[in-house]
Design a protein that fits this description.
40% helix, Rossmann fold, alpha/beta, 3 domains
């Protein structure tokens, strides 16, 4: 009975390996095959010599001489047994073969009803076994081919990166949304429900999934609250508290959904991945936004990760900067800034994350997501608050010998911010809170010479009325360094709005002969497909713009290209004062070569969409 009940775990393992990119065919029969099943592994003479008649569930071929042993059990409480048996199989192979090595071992335990636990380790040449980790956190899902090859090629248990396939991530997000929908969890609350589960996962001790719905939910709420208390953010616990329905049948559905979400998150190594180079919470929230109406009412559009990374590179965020986002959402810009400092100057990251990251978010449930984002990165949440940024100011303050800031409700006398990154709420109904209102607030918090990068609707830079009046006031005391147009579908499917990136330097009036960098970004590296934008794999214009813009902001030279990226003098005598690329970039006539390249691009786009559809 035990072997029969383990069948679901075999299917789970094979399906996951296939989704991760492994060729799940027998290498003896298919040249590109990488997976020996329990019945097939003894067909390999060296594996047979090492195992005698013992047969693990799967043996995966990583390289010609490197292998990965996987053993499965039917109950999640048997995860350690599965892991130790896999290790014993690997040890036997290594002791009896001088040609091949079993360098990776994994135990898998569980069922479709319970969920699945995964425990993976690397075996070093001296026989010692270390859990496979990323940023010091054990991975909880199966390895991709690139990850397994990295471990064996570098003889290490530490992954250098934990990039999750965009397709896999979106599928998991959609599945989580589906499970929460089945449990009748309000579509506008699903992201915060997931946040509670994430915080409950901080502890290495698993909840008792066999407990009653009341006991399980109470346990998860206690765990998430304990984490917030430890990080001095207890006030956010009420916004993510799980609340059971009244009827017993509904409670069971709720309990089942929570358990399934828990294991879906483990499947993508969420604890380790949350500390990686992606705003995963933002990506999940983006999926949930498609089904909720609340975001549209408050103007939420989440900044795509590649735009946030572009921004921190162009402004060259360092550990010496005090970074501010007055409408931080799930924290995408702040996460990108933190990651850049951690990557470039790790010796500065402790002070930076404690004293130099500031963010305000008016929606409490969204602010909680930003807090959770930073908690999984170790810190950086201290100065992220739930409030109305327009009712606050930042004032310079020295903390532990470092230049920092504090929130005050009076007028700031010593503006502390050196770099602002922002994407303000779009098209709010309240007439006193237009997009430029948030930009002006941010400028007021900045030191002289401070730099601001904002993603704005194009209307802010070319419309008449109050937008126009703001532009005139802005250039009287500040410089418009750069304006870049962005693809029309940048925020698809969250919103349909034409946007620009604007870079402003504070305290330097815009001169008549001053050059402003204009660029037109048509291809940002992503393509639209079935309510998604996915990376298409070709070189994008964003990469070229990033290099030139970073050089220009730092006072260097720019390699201009007519119609694409050019330095132009803003016509300050223009009564409309339109400051957009569409007005200033040259429009060269299309050459035969241009037409040929455009045709190639369109055909490439067609092929990309066909391939993506085949993967659905």
């Amino acid at each position: 009975m035990t072997r029969i009940s383990e069948f679901s775990s075999y299917v789970f393992i094979k399906n996951d390996l296939n989704a991760l990119g492994w060729t799940t065919k027998n290498p003896n029969r298919v040249a590109a095959g990488q997976l020996y099943t329990q019945q097939e592994c003894l067909d390999h003479p060296e594996i047979k010599n090492g195992l005698d008649r013992k047969r693990p569930e799967y043996v995966v071929k990583v390289r010609e001489q490197s292998f990965w042993v996987i053993e499965a059990k039917a109950k999640i409480e048997d995860i350690d047994t599965a892991f130790h048996e896999a290790a014993e199989y690997a040890k036997s192979i290594n002791e009896n073969s001088s040609i091949i090595k079993a360098q990776i071992v994994t135990g898998v335990a569980g069922s479709d009803d319970q969920g699945y636990l995964v425990k993976t380790a690397y075996i070093f040449d001296d026989g010692t076994i270390q859990n496979v980790q990323y940023n010091g956190k054990p991975i909880t899902g199966l390895l991709s081919p690139d990850q397994a090859k990295y471990l064996t090629d570098n003889n290490t248990n530490a992954l250098n990166d934990l990039i999750i396939s965009e397709i896999i991530l979106l599928k998991v997000a959609e599945k989580i949304n589906e499970e929460l929908h089945k449990a009748s969890i309000n579509k506008d609350l699903r992201a915060t429900v997931m946040s509670a589960i994430l915080l409950a996962m901080v502890s290495d001790t698993l909840p008792n999934f066999n407990a009653s719905p009341d006991v399980l939910v109470k346990d998860i709420n206690n765990r998430s609250e304990d984490v917030l208390i430890a990080h001095s953010k207890r006030e956010f616990s009420e916004y993510i508290e799980l609340r059971l329905p009244q009827e017993n049948a509904a409670k069971e559905k709720y309990r089942s959904a929570i358990i399934k979400v828990f294991f879906l998150l483990r499947k993508i190594n969420i604890k380790a991945a949350m500390d990686g180079s992606h705003d995963l919470l933002g990506k999940f929230y983006e999926v949930f936004l498609k089904y909720g109406n609340g975001a549209k009412d408050i103007g939420i559009v989440l900044t795509p990760r590649h735009i946030a990374e572009f921004a921190v590179e162009v402004l060259n965020i360092t550990g010496d900067d005090l970074v501010y986002d007055p409408a931080c959402g799930t924290g995408g810009f702040l996460v990108a800034a933190y990651d850049k400092v951690r990557r470039d100057t790790p010796e500065q990251v402790e002070m930076f994350k404690k004293h130099k990251i500031f963010g305000v978010e008016q929606q409490a449930n969204v602010a909680t997501l930003a807090i959770v984002n930073m908690i999984f990165r170790g810190d950086g949440k201290n100065n992220i608050i739930n409030n109305d940024c327009l009712a606050l100011n930042l004032n310079r303050k020295i903390r532990n010998g470092e230049a920092s800031a504090e929130y005050i409700t009076t007028t700031t006398t010593r503006p502390p911010v050196t770099k602002t990154l922002m994407n303000p709420p779009f098209s709010l109904k309240r007439s006193d809170e237009q997009e430029f209102t948030f930009v002006q607030h941010a400028i007021d918090q900045m030191q002289e010479g401070g730099l601001l990068l904002a993603v704005l609707p194009i209307s802010v830079m070319c419309s008449m009325g109050r937008d126009q009046s703001w532009r005139k006031r802005t250039i009287e005391g500040n410089s418009i360094l750069a304006v870049f147009s962005l693809p029309n579908d940048l925020f698809y499917p969250q919103a349909s709005v034409e946007t620009v990136i604007v870079i402003i330097e504070k305290g330097k009036p815009h001169k008549e002969d001053q050059k402003t960098l204009f660029a037109r970004i048509i291809d940002d590296g992503f393509s639209k497909l079935k309510r998604r934008r996915l990376r298409h794999g070709r070189d994008s214009q964003l990469e070229t713009i990033q290099k030139e813009a970073k050089s220009f902001v730092a006072g260097g030279i720019v390699n201009e290209e007519p119609g694409f990226i050019q330095l132009k003098t803003v016509d300050l005598s223009d009564p409309n004062l339109e400051i957009v690329p569409q007005k200033y970039l040259d429009r060269p006539s299309a050459s035969k070569e241009d037409i040929k390249n455009e045709t190639k691009k369109l055909y490439s786009e067609f092929l990309f969409q066909k391939i993506r559809k085949s993967l659905q």
